[in-house]
Amino acid sequence: MIPVLLVTGFLGSGKTTLIRRILANPAFARSAVIVNEWGEIGLDHDLIASADESLLELSTGCLCCRVSGDLGRTFASLAGKGAGRYERVLIETSGLADPAPILHGLLMDRTIRSGHALSGTLTLVDARSGEACLARHPEARRQVAFADRFLITKTDLAPDTLALDGALAGLNPDAERLAAVRGEIAPEMLFAPSPLGAARAIPPAAPAHSDGITSSVLIRERPVPALALILLLQALAEYCGRRLLRVKGLVDVVEMPGRPALIHGVQHVFEPPEWLPAWPGEDRRTRLVFIGEGIPRHFPARLLAAIEAEVLEEAARDARRLSDKKEQ
């Protein structure tokens, strides 16, 4: 039987980074990845940046709300491509997914069970924002409650996890606890037999979601000036703060042609852009996904347009001043 690892965790906890690390390990290269994303467009399949045909983008939207059909069809597609081409399956859920319906489908769907077996549920928890997420969002609590293992991420940025450990223990005292920085962990630890096993009762309950969470996407055909990108991220952190649950995407920057900037942000904290050596797919446009609470749909795009106009106008003024000095 081919093992299946369900990877859950709230928005920005580091799921995509972890899976990229796993696939970079030669011993785990023969892995099929099923990606589910919340929003209008899929980005994680590009961010994972694997050329393996077994990498599948399941859907945009919410897998836990439509698990009865999508999950079974995806595993049937995997089987049709030949199970011998992969040795394990990783399912990366949306950060807003309730794992209960997904686990129920993995354990009960005959198409899946015929050749695959659930090895466990890994829930990633951000050391910086995890405690607040657990307090505010039912999805985060459900993800923790159904975990066989916790992977505490970003402990380099928030080494004191005593309060978070207490919150996790209150929801799920039996789960094993691991830690990682930027996805650095031995993959075999994640696929080891779970201390809780896959026999945990999974009720087919309706998924529980927070109210008022929306997703929007910013797509740009032309490159973005580096200064405009920096000012955009600063403005988003200042004006949206904790309401901005997640920002991720690829940005085509004027000063770095052919090398997109990989952007990750959680609430008011943005990681330094990672400059990829090349675009991971055919689509070379800027694509930024925003997931937040009470943030107007077109606000990020309009904010970027205003910032870019100011940056270009200031650059034009500088050019005129330089030209005037040369003429004097």
Describe the overall structure.
The chain has 328 residues and is an alpha/beta fold. It has two domains: 2-191, P-loop containing nucleotide triphosphate hydrolases (Rossmann fold, 3-Layer(aba) Sandwich); 213-327, CobW-like, C-terminal domain (Hypothetical Protein Yjia, Chain: A,domain 2, 2-Layer Sandwich). The protein is 36% helix and 25% strand. The protein is built from eleven helices and 13 strands. It has helices at residues 15-24, 44-48, 67-81, 99-108, 110-113, 130-136, 138-145, 162-171, 187-191, 226-239, 299-327, and strands at residues 2-9, 31-37, 55-60, 88-92, 116-126, 149-153, 176-180, 213-220, 244-251, 261-266, 269-270, 274-275, 286-293. The protein has a seven-stranded parallel β-sheet, with helices on both faces. Strands 8, 9, 10, 11, 12 and 13 form a six-stranded antiparallel β-sheet that branches. Helix 3 packs across helix 4 (99-108) and helix 10 packs across helix 11. The longest helix is centred in the last third of the chain and has 29 residues, at 299-327. It is globular, with a radius of gyration of 21 Å. Mean pLDDT is 81; it is low at 49-55.
Descriptive keywords:
alpha/beta; 6-stranded antiparallel β-sheet; 328 residues; globular; 7-stranded parallel β-sheet; Rossmann fold; Hypothetical Protein Yjia, Chain: A,domain 2
